[in-house]
Amino acid sequence: MTDWNGTMDLTLPQRLYLLCFDPGRNKLDTASVLVRGSLLRAAAVAELRTRGLLGDRDGKAVRETSAAQPSDPFLAGVLDHVSPHKPCRWFTLLERDWYKAEKIVREQLEAKRLVAGNRVRRLGILPGREVGLADPGQVTTLRENTRNTVLLGGDPAAAPVDAAVLAVFATDGDVRSVFTTQERREHKQAIKALGARVEDALPGLRKALGYAIAARRMSASSG
Q1: Which superfamily does CATH assign the domain made up of 12-222 to?
Q2: Which are the contacts of 20, defined by CB distance < 8 A and separation ≥ 6?
Q3: Which residues of the chain fall short of a pLDDT of 70?
């Protein structure tokens, strides 16, 4: 049984994916759909760094070869994109296979029976697939804990890194199922301080994510 008071048995990418659902409507947020893959890659990198499996050297990702390989396949796959012999740019690491990230994480959550996928026919003709939470109420604590990291005005320096990452990435990716546009505007200083907390703990990652988000949105607008 998943511990929904802390969801500590779920990886950061899995928690971030769940946060992309609006529990009331049981649908994925549409504002962040273009950048969801990049957000999940960045969340995986954040977890690898907090576990000590990746480090930063002169602004580049370096693999800590003495650390154990993660058991989670998605985290392991992201880690394997960093050569033990050659550092790579954080942006390069986020860009590798970003378009595969959402499917992988979704299937992990389906295997845990936290997310359910149903085949549908759009317009009565076109085959499609809708994804929903198996139990929308289960995500409420995760969502409220993430929102409270910003909305309650606590000390950003005291926020756990994973909580700060979830809150900041949700704002960077415009995940409106977590924060509305008005909430982001009203709590701009708190979000800025949490962003500094993430940058201090994981230097270079948020900047690389910003570039990745811009690339996704620019590609969509030019297409």
Answers
A1: yeast vps74-n-term truncation variant domain like (1.10.3630.10)
A2: 28, 29, 32, 36, 175, 177
A3: 1-8, 119-129, 223
